[in-house]
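Journal club side-thread
Mid-discussion, someone asked how the predicted structure for our own chain would compare to the paper's figures. Pasting it here so we can look after the session.
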Amino acid sequence: MDELLTKDNIYYRDLARDLAEKHVRPVAAELDRTGEYPWGVIKALQETGLMGMWVPKDYGGAGAGLLNLCIVVEEISRACGGIGCTYVVNALGSFPIILGGTEEQKKKYLPDIASGDKLIAFALSEKAAGSDAGSLKTRAEREGDEYLITGDKKWTTNGAAASIFTVFATVNPERGTRGVSGFIVERGAPGFEIGRREDLMGIRCVPVNETHFKECRVPSSDLLGGAEGRGFKHAMMTLDVARPFVAAQGLGIAQGA
């Protein structure tokens, strides 16, 4: 099938395949058994330049594009679906900033994501609202130059490992989807807690956590896109971009079976 791939595609495929055989496959079974996070693989991804390859060049990434990202996810997932997931959820978490962030937000957060120095998570789902961002119960209220976020998120993939979170909350429940806004929340923000980790059947090296916001204080400068009411659009744009990642992960797992 190489005739369908560009030289760039083949470069990323071979780079990811070599990394997977050297650094992923040898630890896959042990990490699935223990549930430990694959920090060693993350370091290898940093060293090869694959970590954050999807981030635009202007912000420190390779600007490699979605097809190359899917190829890398496929190759890593062929050796371990869990490690493939830990890798690609960083893309999921960062695309709201790439697609909808202000220039200041992109300059502040994307270089550390591109280098792999900081990991990121996507916090949308709740107990009563999966990807239905119009039904979110998490609230955000403006108070001076800050927002106070209150609510609970479920299934925050990468929760225990991430330093940055893209979080979605409603600023006006009466407006439905038009009342949803996105926020960039850093670990350690006042009122932000990482909660219980899910006990998964598979991909056990992936920390999937509850995340809790108890009047969590977020600077207004970290309102995603700099304006209220854009969160639903940002979330849906991100999910549209991310759907091929899931297919690539599944394909890789099937090839490795």
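Post-session note: The first helix runs from residue 7 to 34.
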